[in-house]
Design goal:
The complex is a heterodimer. Chain A has strands at residues 64-67, 74-79, 90-97, 108-115, 120-121, 127-133, 136-142, 148-158, 161-171. Chain A is mainly beta. The chains are: A mainly beta, B mainly alpha.
Chain lengths: 172, 443
């Protein structure tokens, strides 16, 4: 796995990594992102927009990390709020690296999610709204409408390679 | 030294007292155990999350600058009960949202000027929602309030008529100006026709379109402020605790007697089903017993009504709505409009879906579903109990899973639903300054 990893050759990723974002559950396939906007393609990772949060003002959620099924990318997510709010839209930050920790700062990323046990998706449509630089991406529009086990799925495409990262967590 | 018999007696009594005291305490602990053991820790936490005592304070509505202004609520209350806000002078908001019926009307399809396709849901606790109407076609309570006013089937009035009533009525005029500033002069009938506004009637729409953009905006601004005042009043309408809430409170205090007083064994069994086997909790959760989401549960179309796309159409309407959170009439900034900006539009997950209603006072607010398809709770539970793995629905796919309740369990579940009825916590009536028989009708 690791030998096949294109990131192991060093340096930061070139700017033509693509990151697309969308949302759906189950029925959506990796190859057919729901995201309809070519604007999701970012070619200038340097144009990081602002900071997602004023640090220290509110408690953030714990960080959660998983490596993708293909072992290519690792996604670390953190909610802007703790505890995770019910029935209220809020934002998260995702950080994408290789499993070795190299920053992936330009890609197409799709975010899906929902409650697999209940066979439903998010009640909203989360989107990646900004590339914050340093492999960090802003996710807005996340909403949970019941306590229990939720999942966020990330389809990451970079250098024509795809990986799928699933992160599970409990909403209290 | 000889110990006196009196001392023995005293010591013995003390020992007995201590023992009996201990015994009483032991008994109480065992009772606590027995009472609490009916519920797991996870279930107790779930029950607490359903209690009205867990309802967090209502958040500000950034789209409505007067949402929490008591003066706006006072004006809104008068407007709410005023039948002059209708084409025939007989329909007020309270016609369908009747205070003594938990702000519903007991009908499957609301009756205004004519019969509407859908039922009037309760207003108790509605200010907590992000989306309004069964299909969520409006994204604020003030924008919702404007819909029925202009609907030909409900109040049947027009924008210019409502604005003119505010200008003409001395009480409304004064209260409005205190809140929103000077009212314009609408007396020029050429500039402001008697009846004009967006309407299903061609001549009324034509009259509206013939007005200058500036005049239309003047009128619409007053119309919007009527909605914002109505919403300020509606934000005060909250459900009150029922026996279920007393039960949860008693459970937390390990008070077996109070628990038994609050709910019967049958009702408790129904509650167990509600949070367990029957899976009601999937959508009817939180202190208002709703996840506020949109779900397709395969409800048949009401008699005489056809294809209803539900949320699939509702969300498209909201995105294009002239009064939505991002509109010029909203007081919110773009950052406040996250519900609208990140609204789910996916056809597969929205078609045939309707808003999960609150179950607060559900036993007292028949009939049920968005067009009153089910006359009573038995019919509702029967519908859920008939769900199969096929997920068949009149349109789209049903979200329901088979629950296979027995006849006895259906009785228990229904019994539980009766414990959610409680006296509404509403603002006191104050309709001074208006009279239902006031002859100054808009038409």
């Amino acid at each position: 796995m690791r030998n096949k990893n294109p990131m192991s050759t060093g340096k930061r990723f070139p700017a033509f990594f693509l990151l697309a974002i969308g949302l759906c559950l189950g029925a959506c396939s990796d190859e057919k992102p729901v995201s309809d906007t070519p604007a999701a393609v970012t070619s200038k990772p340097e144009t990081a927009q602002g900071t997602p949060n004023a640090a220290g003002n509110t408690a953030k959620g714990p960080t959660m990390t998983e490596v993708g099924k293909n072992g290519l990318f690792q996604v670390t997510i953190q909610s802007d709020e703790a505890p995770l709010p019910l029935n209220r839209i809020h934002s998260w930050t995702a950080r994408i690296t290789t499993p070795e920790g190299r920053i992936v700062d330009d890609a197409i990323l799709m975010v899906y999610g929902g409650m697999p046990e209940h066979k439903h998706g998010f009640p909203s449509k989360p989107e990646v709204t900004a590339n914050l630089g340093d492999g960090r991406y802003r996710i807005e529009g996340v909403k949970f409408n019941m306590p229990g086990r939720w999942e966020m799925w990330f389809n990451v495409r970079a250098l024509d390679q795809d990986d799928k990262v699933i992160i599970s967590f409990d909403v209290p | 030294m000889k110990i006196s018999p009196l001392y023995h007696l005293l010591a013995g009594s003390l020992a007995l007292l201590a023992l009996s005291g201990f015994a009483i305490k032991a008994t109480a602990t065992e009772t606590d155990k027995r009472v609490d053991s009916a519920w797991s820790d996870a279930e107790i936490s779930m029950l607490r999350s359903l209690s009205l005592h867990s309802l967090t304070p209502l958040q500000a509505d950034p789209s409505n600058a007067v949402a929490d202004d008591p003066r706006a609520a006072a004006l809104g209350q008068k407007l709410f009960f005023d039948p002059r806000l209708s084409a025939n002078g007989e329909v007020s908001c309270a016609s369908c949202h009747q205070p003594d019926r938990y702000f519903t009307d007991g009908l499957g399809q609301a009756q205004g000027i004519a019969t509407t396709p859908r039922g009037a849901p309760t207003l108790l606790g509605a200010s907590y929602y992000a989306w309004f109407f069964w299909d969520g076609r409006r994204d604020s309570q003030w924008a919702q309030a404007l819909g029925p006013l202009e609907s030909g089937q409900e109040h049947g009035g027009t924008r210019v008529e409502f604005a003119r009533l505010i200008v003409a009525d001395p009480v409304y005029h004064a209260e409005y100006e205190t809140l929103f500033g000077a009212l314009p002069d609408l007396s020029d009938i050429k500039r402001f026709p008697k009846q004009a506004g967006p309407s299903a009637e061609r001549n009324i729409t034509d009259a509206w379109n013939a007005m200058s953009a500036g005049d239309r905006q003047l009128v619409t601004r007053i119309f919007v402020n009527i909605g914002k005042s109505l919403a300020a009043y509606e934000r005060l309408l909250m459900p009150g605790p029922g026996r279920f809430d007393n039960y949860v409170e008693a459970l937390q205090e390990h008070n077996a007697a109070a628990m038994e007083e609050a709910m019967t064994a049958n009702e408790v069994a129904g509650l167990k089903l509600f949070v367990g086997k029957a899976m009601c909790i999937r959508c009817h959760n939180g202190p208002l017993f709703t996840d506020q989401g949109f779900h397709n549960i395969g409800v048949p179309f009401a008699e005489g009504l056809h294809l209803d796309w539900g949320r699939y159409q509702g969300v498209q309407k909201a995105l294009k709505d002239e009064f939505n959170c991002l509109s010029e009439y909203s007081d919110a900034s773009q950052e406040d409009c996250t519900e609208l900006r990140f609204a789910k539009t996916l056809k597969d997950e929205t078609i045939g879906a309707f808003k999960a209603p609150t179950l607060r006072n559900v036993a007292a607010t028949a009939p049920y579903m968005h067009s009153g398809q089910f006359a009573d709770l038995d019919a509702v539970l029967d519908h859920y109990n008939k769900a199969t793995t096929s997920r068949k629905a009149p349109i789209g796919h049903s979200d329901l899973l088979p629950i296979n309740l027995t006849a006895e369990e259906l009785v228990q579940l229904k019994a539980f639903l009766h414990t959610l009825t409680g006296p509404p916590a509403v603002a006191p009536y104050n309709t001074s300054g208006i009279s239902p028989t006031n002859p100054n009708r808009i038409r």
